[in-house]
Amino acid sequence: MKTIDKALVDLQKELPGVEFQRREHPPSVNIQVTYPDGNVVNYDIVPGKYTGTEQIRIPSGVTGTKDTLVEFPSFALPKYDNKNNPRINSDDRELIWRSCTSSYERYMADLCRSSPERQYIMTANCIIKSVIKTLQEEQNPLGNLINSYDLKTIAYHIIMDKTILSSMKITGVKDALGLHVTYIRKYVSERFLPDFFLGNKDLVKIFPGSKILENRRQLNLFWKANPRLLLAAINGLKRLLEILEGCFTCTNGLS
Fold this sequence. Notes:
The longest helix has 22 residues. The protein has 2 domains: about 45 residues, no CATH class; about 140 residues, no CATH class. It is α+β, with helices and mostly antiparallel strands and about 260 residues long. The strands form 2 sheets. It has a 3-stranded antiparallel sheet, covered by helices on one side. A 3-stranded antiparallel sheet has the order 4-5-6. The N and C termini lie far apart (about 50 Å). The protein contains 9 helices and 6 strands.
């Protein structure tokens, strides 16, 4: 925190017309920057401990060009959720950390720029994110269940299934929106959204030999959701389809 505070002091001296506000939202620190023209930008910084770097040769079948050697730094982050967890001994709560997957997430974002199909999927993901925001404003159960990280996870599962494990012809954003609707219905119906980076055995196709593959426990991103909300969320799908009517290609019998 001292490093962040010092950096903000230095920035304030260099940019006297810009206002910086720091807020703590564990595990992240939010920096709100207000520019002289009134524009406001928020940045989230997550402090962590560097634990090393691994080199992985990404196969040509994934990159679309040639085998590419990429360095992935790794970090450990404190599990702030444990601070008030009565099931964990109070003396142990500060000692439980988790492995950060941010460098792998960043590379997935880079991969999405490597083919039109992946770009269609990520563009569709932005559209779905906007629709989910509308559903949240309407207090729709589906909108209240799914957050932005869930949506990004769904996009990565589509990319894995349709552009890496298989080669599906995705001709545009309309096709990609249809895939998003199908996957959302599937995960909400099953009440199970698998984490993309933890316990995903298919990651060997992208990150062969990586230590991220050592984590074999599959995490359900819906595990914290209120059980009643999880059951009700499928009823919110109808409203999603109404908003997107005519904008997506039906897949797997979706109508």
